[in-house]
Design brief:
Shape of chain A: globular
Number of helices of chain B: 3
Oligomer: heterodimer
Largest sheet of chain B: 4 strands, parallel
Helix content of chain A: 40-55%
CATH topology of the largest domain in chain A: Heat Shock Protein 90
Number of domains of chain A: 2
Strand content of chain A: 15-25%
CATH class of the largest domain in chain A: Alpha Beta
Mean pLDDT of chain B: 92
Strand order of the largest sheet of chain B: 1-3-5-6
Number of strands of chain B: 6
Structural class of chain A: alpha+beta
Low-confidence stretches of chain A: none
Mean pLDDT of chain A: 90
Largest interface: A-B, 27 and 25 residues
Distance between the termini of chain A: 33 Å
Shape of chain B: globular
Order of helices and strands of chain A: EHHEEHHEHHEEHHHEEEE
Radius of gyration of chain B: 12 Å
CATH architecture of the largest domain in chain A: 2-Layer Sandwich
């Protein structure tokens, strides 16, 4: 089948970014265009689809880079109301698809994790505010990421003895503790763990250099070291 | 009195939203008699989470104690999982009908 080419304007619409952004991405090599004989940029439609679907790569790069790349608007939630609205959209899509009985748990998990990002970084975002929130119902995956202060820095305010990201992650998933004392908070990640114990949902949760892997067979906290990231990076599959 | 939760929305997630919902509903609770039951009806709620629940249910529980009754929780796993968590951090379990 011959390749289908689309204009830079159509590619910008599909990716929900500006034409200037696509020109920058072409120059930096992030998403290369093809030049026509007349010198215009065009794109293989398939390349755009792959780029759009590679949500994990987009999220990983966003939390790993010292200079964060610009995100497509379709996945970037700069404020909590934008995140809540997109969460509502995911709920509607999962409900309509009628494919998974316990879809409300996926929405609740994503909601708790995303809400945490905003609550713990309000007024304190180190550089880019907000969260990346993306889902793909065909691949059955949900991805959340933020460039916030991370779990260790947040919990250190109430648990100054914490030293490593691994320790902080362990506390966050097992103890009712809050980085916003004296408010009584800090049950969201325990809720996430409880759900995974009872349902076929897998979770990867990285903060700093600590990556936690949880699933129904692996409910004890298994934390491994990874190259460090800013904030948090979360991958849910179901 | 019966509080129909889905009047606050069908996706009850954010802590801030739970706090605002509780504050907004306070004037309506003034008409509750001392021994009157307060029923919280979950029908029509699609997604419920501990953050919203902790801001709305926990203070209501403190105000009304065992007169607070939760109804229509059966068909929603997010409600059941949230109540497990909230029960775990409260001294008195929620009453469910």
């Amino acid at each position: 089948m011959p390749d289908e080419f689309i204009s830079i304007g159509d590619a910008a619409r599909l990716l929900d970014v500006s034409i200037d952004t696509l020109r920058r991405w072409d120059e930096s090599g992030k998403l290369k265009a093809i030049r026509t004989s007349g010198g215009h940029r065009v794109y293989r439609k398939h390349d755009i689809e792959i780029f759009l679907n590679d949500l994990w790569a987009i999220a990983s790069e966003w939390v790993s880079s010292s200079a964060p790349p610009e995100l497509p608007n379709s996945v970037y939630c700069p404020t909590s109301p934008v995140f809540q609205a997109r969460l509502g959209k995911m709920q509607a899509i999962l409900k309509d698809a009628n494919a998974i009985e316990h879809f409300s748990l996926l929405v609740a998990m994503a909601g708790e994790i995303g809400d945490n990002s905003f609550a713990h970084n309000l007024g304190n975002w180190p550089d880019v505010p907000g969260v990346l929130f993306a889902f793909d119902i065909n691949k059955k995956q949900i991805i959340l990421a933020d460039r916030g202060r991370g779990v260790l820095k947040t919990l250190k305010r109430v648990r100054p003895e914490l030293v490593t990201h691994e320790e902080a992650l362990r506390v966050a998933f097992t103890e009712v503790v809050t980085g916003r004392e004296p408010e009584k908070r800090g049950n969201g990640l325990k809720f996430v763990r409880n759900i995974i114990q009872d349902y076929p949902i897998d979770l990867l949760f990285q903060t700093g250099d600590a990556l936690l892997e949880l699933n129904r067979k692996q409910i004890d906290l298994r934390i491994i070291q990874r190259p460090p990231i800013k904030g948090c990076l979360v991958f849910i599959t179901y | 009195m019966r509080i129909t939760l889905n009047k606050f929305g069908d996706i009850l997630i954010a802590r801030q939203a739970g706090k605002e919902s509780f504050a907004a509903f306070q004037p309506s609770l003034k008409s509750v008699l001392p021994d009157e039951e307060v029923e919280i009806d979950f029908s029509g709620v699609v997604t419920f989470s501990p953050s919203w629940g902790d801001e709305f249910l926990t203070p209501l529980h403190k105000q009304h104690g065992d007169k607070l009754i939760l109804i229509n929780i059966e068909n929603n796993p997010s409600v059941k999982e949230t109540l497990k968590i909230l029960d775990g951090i409260s001294t008195i379990p929620f009453k469910v009908k």
